[in-house]
Each structure stands twice: as C-alpha cells, then as structure tokens.
Amino acid sequence: MCSRDCCSGPGGSAKSGNTCTDRKNAKAVSVEKIIPTPQSLLYPYEVIQEIADFIVKGSNMRPKIGIICGSGLGSLADIIQDAKVFEYEKIPNFPVSTVEGHAGKLVVGNLEGAVVMAMQGRFHFYEGYPLAKCSMPVRVMKLCGVEYLFATNAAGGINPKYSVGDIMLMHDHVNMLGFAGNSPLQGPNDPRFGPRFPALVNSYNKELINKALEIGKQMGIEANMHVGVYSCLGGPTYETIAELKALRMMGVDAVGMSTVHEVITARHCDMKVFAFSLITNKCATEYSDKKDDEANHDEVMAVAKNRQKACCELVARLIRQIQASS
C-alpha cells in the first residue's frame, strides 16, 4: 500500500513521474495521474454552439423564452403548438435525464404568440452529473436566442404558512451547494458567455414577479401564491429535521434539489429569470415516528399532476404579457 507521504517524499513521484514504490515489497507500481477537468471546460463554447445550431436548424425556429419543467410539470411543454420534439438522447453531446417524471425531451414551438423552448426533464447533481452539465442546457438556450428563462420545480415547504399545492414565486435563493464550493461556473471563464464575477443580487426579475402576482389575482389563486426564498440541496435524500430547522432559521421558505445552478448560469449570460416552486409536500420540522411525515417522490408527482393546469395557465398568461409588450 502506498503511504500518504510516498509520492511526495524521496523516491516518490517527484522523481519517478508516474510511479511510486511499495516500500514493504520494494516493487514499482504504475500510477495513472488523473487531472480533473474544470467544470467550465466540460462544455466549451464551440460544443454549446454545435448543440444550439442543431436545435435551431432542426426546428427552423429561434426561441425567445426557455422553460425548464420541474418534476411532474412536463405538461407545460404539452401546451406548445407547432411543436418540434427532440429526444435528449438524439441531441449531440446532450445528457439524458434518469428521474421519473422527467420525460427527457426538448420541445420547440409556439406558445401565446412567442417561440419557446421547453425542457421536459432536467439534470440533477444527485444523478452524478457535475453542475456545469446540469445547467449546460441554459447556455444552449442562450445561443439559440433565448432572452427569458422560466424555471419551475417541485419543492418542500418549510414556511409553516405554506400549504401543499401552493405556488411560491422565487425572489431569492440560498445556494447550499455553493457554500460547499460547487458552482457551474468553476474553472476558466469564457467571456463570450459572461463575466468572471457575475452579481446575483436581483437575480429574479421583479417585473415578472409582479406580473405573475397580478395574473394570480385574475385566476383567483392569489391565496395560494407566495413570494419566497428557495434553497437547493444536493439530494437525493430528503432533508433531516435538523437541516430543515437550520434552513428555516436562514430565511428559507422552500427547499428542493435543482434550479439554483440553472439560475446562476442564466444570470451569468444575462438572461431575465422567472422561477417558481410548486409546494408538493410540507417539510416536517418536528421529530415524530409517523410515517406520514416523511416526504416521498410519489406524493410529489401526485400533487404536481393535480396542480399542473394552474401552473400551465400561469406560465401561458405571463408569456402572453411578455409577447404583448415586446
């Protein structure tokens, strides 16, 4: 067994390059040096451009609005007209979604007079994808012509005032993965995408939030709409009681496993962002032996299915207003 100091001490890799010596058995062992690729180099500009060109050529459309459909909210893409559908596995250099409730399709077409591009299924950190790969489709959207990103997700409600089925418009986030040093922007920065140090204050467009609140009143669902703070954890486990209490003390209203890194990538390339969480379960913040207090994916999917009509109408009406004002 190679000791911790073997490759840094006399006779180690500093002298022998890619071999180290098993001092007990005095045998030379070949060791392959692995240098991790910085996240920002996983999908360089040229590769993103190739994917974007494939989609624009294949659809013969340049989308203005990008939509990321969260768990169980894939029906957002089903209301798109004159749709051109691309399966992820048939798009060059595109990952494949592995989670139930994420169809793995990219849909380009017309919605309320605007050309939109919707992802039926996103990529998550817990699937084993690095954050740069999870948020790569946002850069594809940008190079396709997208100016607005609509990101949706299913989330657990921490705020005790929230009920299952409520919609929380995101006006800020707490980036727990970022606290641990993970960012989709790690590595050398390509200025063709955005600046080295992007600011994230006001990441969520206030004008779009206000328009959505007004639409909620018109739909008669204002009592089930909130404006709050979202946090993304790595998953795939749901949170512990202690973690949820800590998040609530930090001012977090809802928690999930996505969206934040997508928003960071969108703001880096100067896209306007609107995002909301569908509250699919209430997070337990007190200790209990009851199984009913435990979150589960089936519950998330069921609630999303029941509320998808309202979510689709909210998105459609907001797109209508954006298109009317442009």
TrEMBL record:
GO terms under cellular component: cytoplasm
SUPFAM superfamilies: Purine and uridine phosphorylases
GO biological process terms held by the UniProt record: nucleoside metabolic process
A Pfam entry, by short name: PNP_UDP_1
Keyword Transferase: yes
Pathway linked to the protein: Purine metabolism; purine nucleoside salvage
Function: The purine nucleoside phosphorylases catalyze the phosphorolytic breakdown of the N-glycosidic bond in the beta-(deoxy)ribonucleoside molecules, with the formation of the corresponding free purine bases and pentose-1-phosphate.
Xref: NCBIfam families: PNPH (TIGR01700), PNPH-PUNA-XAPA (TIGR01697), PRK08202.1 (NF006054)
PANTHER family, per the entry: METHYLTHIOADENOSINE/PURINE NUCLEOSIDE PHOSPHORYLASE, PURINE NUCLEOSIDE PHOSPHORYLASE-RELATED
Name assigned to this protein: Purine nucleoside phosphorylase
